[in-house]
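Board notes (copied after class):
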Amino acid sequence: MVEGAGMDTRVTVIMPTFNQAMFLRRAVDSLIAQTFQEWHLIIVDDGSTDETSSIVERYLANSRIDMIHLTENGGLGHALNVGLDRAAGEFNAYLPSDDVYHAEHLASLVGCLGHRGEAVLAFSGVRHYYNRVSAGQISGEPLQLVQVLHRRTSDRWLERHELVTDDLDRMLWSRLRERGEFAETGEDTCEWVDHPAQLHKLLREPKGGINPYRDAFRVREPMRFHTTVGNRIDEVSRYQRFRDRLATPMAPDGLKILLVGELAYNADRVLALEELGHRLYGLWSPAKDIDWFNTVGPVPFGHVQDIPRDGWRDRVRRVQPDVIYALLNWQAVPFVHQVLTDNPGIPFVWLFKEGPFICLERGTWPPLVDLTERADALIFSTPEMGEWFESIVPGIDDHRTLVLDGDLPKRDWFEGPRAERLSGEDGEIHTVVTGRPIGLHPETVAELARHRIHLHFYGDYTHGQWRAWIDRTNSMASGYLHLHHHVDQEHWLPEMSRYDAGWLHAFPSTNRGDIRRANWDDLNVPARLATLAVAGLPMIQADNSGSIVATQTLARHRELGPLFTSIDDLAAQLHDEPRMNELRESVWNQRQDFVFDTHAERLVAFFREVIDS
């Protein structure tokens, strides 16, 4: 029993908190103001680094309030379980430190359970925006902690090492339902306070996600992660093969490479550099500035030593890296620019994949231009991107440059044979799109269906964003649109090789051969290109003859797939089995060119040129 908890305490209120000092007074004061006074509060400080301790200290003179301080953040489930293990009351309630009870909240809940002896849990209505109220459970959300009071049981919350999620049903409520009924008070007596740092917002894509969560709570271990709006991510099993292997001994001429910024897709590709005997260090952009798919450290596959952002300048000086490899996308530009400015004398290589037009839009064009001008060397994802920058940013013509796609996957995932194609079963053509079906309108899919061409669409989260598109397409091309769950790298080859061809972005270019008129669609090589290549799939895209389009140039140079002028034209090409077999073998024979490992030694040689220059 926590000191101060009397045996006559009926309700133990558990308050998990992490770096929410600005909310604490309001939350605790709302409990003190309850009309029901038979409560004991256990504040579980989950490793806060702000003013939480000093604010709580002033409340500890109250014998009904205690605090447990955890030295490191263990996650919501762990903090709640620490509180439950100390709880001595007949009932347990929850008051997250950013939420609020109204005066009659506990009295209403206790009364509800008192009248419903068969019920194991009571829940109230809740205000969840400054002027929005739900009489019970909020539509589309699980019951929130602040709403709930339940009988004391032996059940415990899922903890971080088991699963990270915003789904409180999976974390506990579903197990309590097995014990008895849930009763509603029907009265809104609390507030689930809406603000940008709410836990579910840090967890859910696209504003949150696994990388923002990792950064916000300083999580160093791999996670099993599945929120109510995203795909399941199991870093524990996916990257075990990399974590468990011994570190590669540093080669006699090995380099100390400082990775700066973020790694976006296929982050584990950088291990190919470590496997060549080089030491990798990571100085990562703040995740709050980065989209959910852009990986920042600590990386779950290991073998990269993190440089803490607190005092990073001194740590970089102690490491004395041979080269700074800064990358990758527009969100990292401000931090990467700061690192360049603060580290004169260290060879600096800047790889910028996307997207200069967003930098213009977001006001980060000046630091991007400065980075491009001042970096010792530049890496462009396509020759067209390099040509565009030369036309826009004066003075970079004489820079040392390299062309290398920054998102290429690692080779380890793509061993094995191709699968049998679906077309061998039904005699029809099966195409696939991974991610957004850009350029594929419902009318387009209907035209494909008339030619007995199917479209298989992957990605649960993307499906949610394109629901109206899916509904309209199904109404126009019934039986020819097929939805599939997200597929991780280890399943790309057996899953994607079942198809006859895959879609790149299908768009009409309007630059008419003038690089200054090019837009991002023209300059970009989308990440899906490598996905299709490693599965040996011919790649479909619109024929933009007369315009500068990076994927078109690549496809023509390497014989990667059909370019079409109309759906009738595309259908004729896809049904030309000898020609499609030629393209399929062409892609399969070049697939190793689309993995990062193939280019790792070339990249290291480029670093050495920069270092020696």
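Comment from the instructor: The two ends are 68 Å apart (CA to CA). The longest helix spans residues 597-612.
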